[in-house]
Amino acid sequence: MRIYLTLFVAFFAINITSAQFYITPSVGYAIGSAEQKLGEVISPSVTSNSYGSYGEGLNVQLRAGYFFNDTFGIDLGFSYLHGADQTVMGVHVPGLEAEAVARARAFGFSPSVVYKFTDHLYGRFGALLKLGGKTEAVASKMQVFTDDEAAMLGLPSGSYSQTNYTEDYHGKLPLGFVGAFGYKHSIGGNFDLFVEAEYMGISVKRKDSEITAFNTDILLPDGTIAVPDYYSLDNLPDGYTRTSEFVDEIPNNNTDPSVKLGQSVPYSSFGLNIGVTYTFATK
Question: Whole-angstrom Cα distance, residue 109 to residue 80?
């Protein structure tokens, strides 16, 4: 028993002696991977699909790690994704112009294992979780009234409505994969400059949504507002609900418009990160 204890203490002491604690901030940009259909764009002559991934955008990370020896270590990363706009709707036909874009605002956590191939090359592989945030959809619609509709409202021909609203979508806690290969170079002292290619594979299943801003104005043909706030957040038109819940199954006799079938949306991406590593202890 003493022999095993002695060996354990010796092994632990050797690893502590060569251990390295580090912290590393980085910034990068990612492009979408495993893109899926997000919506459609309609024109007078053609209708086309719009593909994308909400993982595209600016990615800021702060990671801390610990190397047990010259080869293996663990890494804990926290990140913020400021996603790029993704087209989810576009309608461009006479009398109707509508557009909707959505973008991610998400916080992530990634525990990983790090392996040093050489003093300069390393790999990082682990799990990826989205801890919080939202997918923000921003939409606008300009629709010209028919002559009959304009007459009913006491407006001249060519009058139109302008609607703008924002809806936030929240998702269930997902689990994905993250992997990266990087190259680091010493820049003096305990600092290293690094660049790495990173893959994130993850999808988020929607849980609920909330309309956070809504406004419809009625305008004259010259753009003058005739009726402000015809619809508002407290007076939504038919077909809109302030909050919605996403489920996997809806009865055929359901009449609650706030209950909708859910879907998984893509957050996968390929990215390039640049940052600096500071090592607190060296061999």
Answer: 9
**How far are the Cα atoms of 113, 155, 217 from residue 221, in angstroms, in the given order?**
62, 9, 13
Q: What is the rounded CA–CA span in Å between residue 40 and residue 49? A: 5
Residue 11's φ and ψ, nearest 5 degrees, are: -65, -45
Query: Amino acid letter at 277?
Result: T
User: What is the distance between the alpha carbons of residues 218 and 150, in angstroms, rounded to a whole number?
Assistant: 10
Quick check: pTM over 0.90?
no
Tens digits of per-residue pLDDT, 143-201?
Answer: 999 999 999 989 999 999 999 999 999 999 999 999 999 999 999 888 999 999 999 99
Question: How many Å apart are CA 156 and CA 221, to the nearest integer?
Answer: 8
pLDDT reading at 235 higher than 70: yes
Tell me how far apart the alpha carbons of residues 236 and 165 are, in angstroms, rounded to a whole number.
Answer: 11
Decide if 97 contacts 91 (C-beta within 8 A).
yes
The dihedral sign for the CA sequence 239, 36, 27, 70 = positive
CA 214, CA 231: separation in Å to the nearest integer?
7
- Torsion angle defined by CA atoms of residues 68, 70, 71 and 77, in that order, rounded to the nearest 10 degrees: 60
